[in-house]
Prior knowledge:
By secondary structure, the chain is an alpha+beta fold. Helix 1 (15-46) packs parallel to helix 2. Strand 3 (67-77) and strand 4 (84-96) form a beta hairpin. It contains two helices and six strands; from the N terminus they run E-H-E-E-E-H-E-E. The strands form two sheets. The chain has a four-stranded mixed beta sheet, with helices on both faces. A two-stranded antiparallel sheet has the order 5-6. The protein starts with 6 loop residues before the first strand and ends with a strand. The protein is elongated. It has one domain (7-135).
Amino acid sequence: MITCPYLTIEFKKSAEQARVxxxxxxxxxxxxxxxxxxxxxxxxxxxxxxxxxxxxxTTSFTFVGSKVTVWILEAxxxxxxxxxxxxxxxxxxxxNCTSESVVRQLKKWINEIHRxxxxxxxxxxxxxxxxxxxxxxxxxxxxxxxxxx
Length: 149
C-alpha cells in the first residue's frame, strides 16, 4: 500500500503536535493517491477507455499518551476532479485508551478501516497502477514485470 495508503498513524507528545503534524502526513498520502488516480485517468483516456474517478480520502490516527483520535481526510477537487484544491480533516471519533470499552471501540475502528482499505481501496489502487504500467508498455500479465518495448 505504499502508493496508496489508506491509514496514517502518529504518536505525539502533545495534542498541539498531533493537530499540526498528523494533517501534514495524511495529506501527503492523500495527495499522492490523487496523483496516481489522475495519471491512470490520463492513460486510459489516451487509450479510449473510461475509468471512473474515485472519491479521494484517507484515515489518520493520532495518539497522545492514552488519548486517541480518529480523523478522516477528504480531498477538495475542482468540478471535473482534475485539480487538487486541498483537503479537509475532521474528527470521526475520540477516546481514552485507559477505558476497556474505548479500547474495544478502537479495535472496531481499526478493523473497519483495514477492511475498507484492503478491499475497494486496494483494488482501485492496484488497477490504477496496472493502467499506468500498461501505458508504459510494461507486461503485467506475469508476476515478473517486464518491459515489452
